[in-house]
Amino acid sequence: MDRNQKKQLVDTLHGIFAGAGLVVVTHYAGLTVAEMTELRRKMKAAGANFKVTKNRLTRLALKDTAYDSLASLFTGPTAVAVSNDPVAAAKVAVDYAKANEKLVIVGGALGAKVLGADGVKALATLPSLDELRAKLLGMVNTPATRIAGVLQAPAGQIARVLKAKAEQGQAA
Question: Containing domain of residue 148, as a range?
Fold first, then answer.
């Protein structure tokens, strides 16, 4: 890799880190190409990215971003999972690490907040942004349905009272 290619890679990584909501740092020693491909496919399906990085270049790319404090985690065979959703990359990485012990979560960061491996695992238990939106929408729709039912109930009661009076009048 020549100097220009390295500069381009650093600039690309810097752009990725600058726009990321969550960065998860992992060690991937022992993963096969097929396992890495499967992990990348799962990350992409969740709206995240998984990239094997060169440690020195990644440390350069982290400068002047919110994730600058992660530089010390980049030792050994390192890869990063990045997503805009504050939960997506953590969920996929933690789930994959449970199934395959060769992927080790080292740590991560949510914005400027640095997380240890346990923090990333805790973050993975939270519902994703889409799940939260669906729950919120359901909560908003439920009261509207109840209000419609309450508004219709008095009209139904009046109709039943009038019907009962009419039946009484016919019976007499």
Answer: 128-172
Is pLDDT at 139 greater than 80 in this prediction? no
**23 has which bridge partners?**
82, 109
Q: What are phi and psi of 69, to 5 degrees?
A: -70, -10
50-89: string of b/e by CB count within 10 Å (b at 16+)?
beebbeebbbbbbeebbbeebeebbeeebbbbbbebbbbb
Distance CA 162, CA 133 (A): 45
Residues 114 and 172 in one domain: no
Residue 39 shares a structural domain with residue 63: yes
Provide DSSP, 97-138.
HHH-TT-EEEEEEETTEEEEHHHHHHHHTSPPHHHHHHHHHH
Q: Is residue 91 within 8 Å of residue 46, measured between CB atoms?
A: yes
User: Is residue 144 scored above 90 in pLDDT?
Assistant: no
Phi, psi values for residue 56, rounded to 5°: -65, -40
pLDDT tens profile 69-125? 888 889 889 999 998 888 888 899 999 999 988 999 999 988 878 888 888 888 888
Q: What is the reported pTM?
A: 0.71
Instruction: Give the pair of three-digit tokens for residue 3.
Output: 């100097």
Q: Provide the pLDDT for residue 2.
A: 83
Strand ranges inside 53-155, DSSP E: 78-83, 104-110, 113-116
Residue type, 151: L
